[in-house]
Amino acid sequence: MSVRVLQAEADMKIPHVLSVAGSDSGGGAGIQADLKTCGARRVYCSTVITAVTAQNTAGVQGLNILPEDFVADQLHSVLSDMHVHVVKTGMLPSLNIVKVLSQTLRKFPIKALVVDPVMISTSGDVLVGPSVLAGFLEELLPMTDIVTPNIKEASVLLGGVPLKSVSDMHTAAKLIHDLGPRNVLVKGGDLPNSLDAIDVFFDGEDFYELCSPRVNTRNSHGTGCTLASCIAAELAKGSSMLSAVKTAKHFIQAALDYSRDMTIGNGAQGPFDHFLALKINQSSYRQNRFNPNDLLLYAVTDSAMNRKWDRSIAEAVKAAVEGGATIVQIREKDAETRDFLEAAKECLKICHSYGVPLLINDRIDVALACDADGVHVGQSDVPARLARTLLGPEKIIGVSCKTPEQAHQAWIDGADYIGCGGVYPTNTKANNRTIGLEGLKEICLASKLPVVAIGGIGLSNAREVMELGVPNLNGVAVVSALFGRECILTETRNLHALVS
């Protein structure tokens, strides 16, 4: 195999975003925001600069648009040499630059095009003339995979139609979709009289309202650039469009919250810190935030069962992951916090040595203290939305659900998966209402999230659960079938062979 082929294969494995945008000398938006976002999301980012601005936290003091020939040279340099997966656009300040971009992209195929239509300033000034708008409508949007206008930009795209409500955002998303892009995200951060930051996502068939609490901070410069480049980064890593949008929404929320009191510059709108991982000490072993396939064999520990067999939590977890458990949840209701934390740290090392994620049941404080991969919460525990705010965008959050309504709320609140059950009667939870296979099926069909079935599942019935054949059912969660037995290793191996 030639060196050229080997290099091409290596390039294919590295997620790569090309940002085509303007330069922000203040470092908060534009090319600089895109570079920082992709870096924070562990994605390589190359750049094509369309304009150079002189700006700071007080505003824009100068703008120098680059000649379209030189923009074309930059595009060709990158696309002819590097394997770019996703192109993300920001400021496209002239009609000729829009045409150069669209013509170039027809020559170099990519996985996706993410368009952030930078058309209007924070103060409300229109930044592009009618000719550039026409270029967007005629040249760029028909080849766009997702466009991410805020309500002012959406209004410009639609000829000045005012957007004053979430209902108006739904209408706008549909009308913009009719202009050609395959997906539309109308951002409602500037929507008046709204307690939450509500974005409307439309994929051509379904509408999704993505909600997050508003963060009271001056440090919001570059949120639009960051959201779009985060979507691009997640698409480059292989995420679905909806998953990429949700991850970007979580990332923005966490970054704004982390940076709310940061002070850089003296102006009205400061930048925020994209590398919130410097404060939230995230685990470095997992390249991807969550893989639904991890739910295949979900092992949940039980302190009483471990005491019965005179073994530690760590011994039990080690046997489970050696036997093939694909994810582990520590559920230790009786342990003292200090003992729980020490055991969690030891279990985390064991799980990570096998590439298996470790979650903590309910105890967000313990999850934060040991830097676990996430938490699982019940309906009476800390809400998933608060858990997401506390843990940040990288961590895994699961929610116990018994109804389609609860499953839908878990999705709105930013959960990654739901635990559905009890499917069968169980002794591990008193007075636990069972939903049966029909209830499990109903929730799987209604859920927008991956589902793991739990409750009374073991060797005798795991197959009939997995053979339901419904979408979103990714695995089974087991307690007694593993930890209630003398040899956890053997039981896990047997169950893993059955479900896989």
Secondary structure topology:
Elements: H1 3-13, E1 16-24, H2 30-40, E2 44-56, E3 59-65, H3 68-79, E4 86-89, H4 95-107, E5 112-115, H5 130-140, E6 146-147, H6 151-157, H7 166-177, E7 184-187, E8 196-202, E9 207-213, H8 223-236, H9 241-258, E10 297-300, H10 303-308, H11 313-323, E11 327-330, H12 337-353, E12 358-361, H13 364-370, E13 374-377, H14 384-391, E14 396-401, H15 404-412, E15 417-421, H16 436-446, E16 451-454, H17 462-466, E17 473-478, H18 480-483, H19 488-499
Parallel strand pairs: 1-2, 1-4, 4-5, 5-6, 10-11, 10-17, 11-12, 12-13, 13-14, 14-15, 15-16, 16-17
Antiparallel strand pairs: 2-3, 7-8, 8-9
Helix pairs in contact: 2-8, 3-4, 4-5, 6-7, 8-9, 9-14, 11-12, 11-19, 12-13
Subcellular location: Plastid, Chloroplast
Cofactor: Mg(2+)
Main location: plastid
Structural class: alpha/beta
**Mind telling me the C-alpha Rg?**
24 Å
Helical amount: 25-40%
User: What do the pLDDT scores average to?
Assistant: 88
CATH topology of the largest domain: UDP-N-acetylmuramoyl-L-alanine:D-glutamate ligase
GO molecular function, one term: thiamine-phosphate diphosphorylase activity
Cofactor: Mg(2+)
Protein name: Thiamine biosynthetic bifunctional enzyme TH1, chloroplastic
Subcellular location: Plastid, Chloroplast
Task: Describe the fold and architecture.
This protein is an alpha/beta fold and 500 residues long. The protein has two domains: 276 residues, Ribokinase (UDP-N-acetylmuramoyl-L-alanine:D-glutamate ligase, 3-Layer(aba) Sandwich), CATH 3.40.1190.20; 208 residues, TIM Barrel (Alpha-Beta Barrel). It is built from 19 helices and 17 strands. The strands form three sheets. The chain has an eight-stranded parallel barrel, surrounded by seven helices. Strands 3-2-1-4-5-6 form a six-stranded mixed beta sheet. Helix 11 runs parallel beside helix 19 and helix 12 crosses helix 13. The chain is elongated, with a radius of gyration of 24 Å.
